[in-house]
Amino acid sequence: HARSLLSSAVNLISSNHPFWNRSRGSDHVFVASHDYGACFHAMEERAAEDGIPEFLKRSIILQTFGVKFDHPCQDVENVVIPPFITPESVQTTLEKYPLTGRRDIWVFFRGKMEVHPKNISGRYYSKKVRTVIWRKYSGDPRFYLRRHRFAGYQSEIARSVFCLCPLGWAPWSPRLVESIALGCVPVIIADGIRLPFPAAVRWSDISLTVAEKDVADLGTLLDHVAASNLSAIQKNLWAPDVRRALLFNDRV
Fold first, then answer.
1. Which residue ranges does the record assign to the Exostosin GT47 domain (predicted)?
2. What is the Cα–Cα distance from 38 to 138, expressed in whole angstroms?
3. Cβ neighbours of residue 167 closer than 8 Å, sequence gap 6 or more
4. Strand pairing partners for 60?
5. Which H/E stretch holds residue 107?
6. Under a CB-based contact definition with an 8 Å cutoff, are residues 54 and 23 in contact?
7. How far is residue 173's CA from residue 185's CA, in Å, rounded to a whole number?
8. Can you list the residues of the chain whose pLDDT is less than 50?
9. Residue ranges of domains in the chain
10. Cα 133 to Cα 125: distance, rounded to the nearest angstrom
11. How high is the pLDDT of residue 251?
């Protein structure tokens, strides 16, 4: 319902104040935290078809969506921001599981992993990436894969060396920030993703990127990293300024 809610808000502001009308919204900022940002829809085809609402196209959008190629949902002045993670929950978890503590889970992922396509179009969720992960590695004891929700999942992240961050319907995922905040090396599997604040966060130093087509080779790729530069990545990842750049303040 975001489109109708925002439309109502704009109508109210433009009726009661002069600021919107003098620039038609070009000096206003909106936050779009949905899967496809300012398109306000979880499904890419529907999001791209609907596009960005006309009344927002002159404004600035802060959104948790961004790709390195042309896309209707970023055809507006925008800044990619991190998804919101509750700072208090991260701090509570770190008090029990410090960054440099024992990490007894090698590779972690908890989330939706379809065995067969279920949606009405017959397409696999996550462009089949999560399905391949489940089929290939669910029997591998090094991979801690869970398909069901668990309220205490942050404790699992804090115990893990590598945390898989595959795309869902959209490229971004809150688990990317949670992994970094809790010291688990994020393994980003989302082709063309545009990550937040590249001037402040050197993503290549704190994360791994795996192409969607190479997801079946995850085991080999992670073994190579573990044998070569894992300790350097962890040292960069555990630096306090990284979490400071990606976590929201306690009082937003």
1. 5-223
2. 36
3. 126, 127, 129, 173, 189, 190, 191, 193, 212
4. 29
5. strand 105-110
6. no
7. 15
8. none
9. 1-80, 87-246
10. 12
11. 77
Say whether pTM exceeds 0.85. Answer: yes
Contact 239, 181 (CB under 8 A): no
Tell me which architecture the domain covering 87-246 has in CATH: 3-Layer(aba) Sandwich (3.40)
CB 206 within 8 A of CB 236: yes
Q: Pick from 65, 44, 158: which is nearest to 110 by CA?
A: 158
Tokens of 203: 């993503």
CA distances (Å), origin 17, targets 9, 24, 235: 12, 12, 51
What pairs with residue 115 in β-bridges?
A: none
The whole-number pLDDT of residue 120 equals: 64
Structure tokens at 198: 């590249």
Task: Encode pLDDT of 43-100 as tens digits.
Answer: 888 899 999 999 999 999 999 999 999 999 999 999 999 999 999 999 999 999 999 9
Report CA torsion sign: 118, 120, 123, 127. negative
Spatial contact of 101 and 158, defined as CB atoms under 8 Å apart:
yes
Interior angle at CA 207, CA 202 and CA 208, nearest 5: 125
Q: Which residues make beta-bridge pairs with 80?
A: 63
Please identify which residue in the block is written with the tokens 């085991």.
Answer: 219
Instruction: State the pairing for strand pair 78-80/105-110.
Output: unpaired
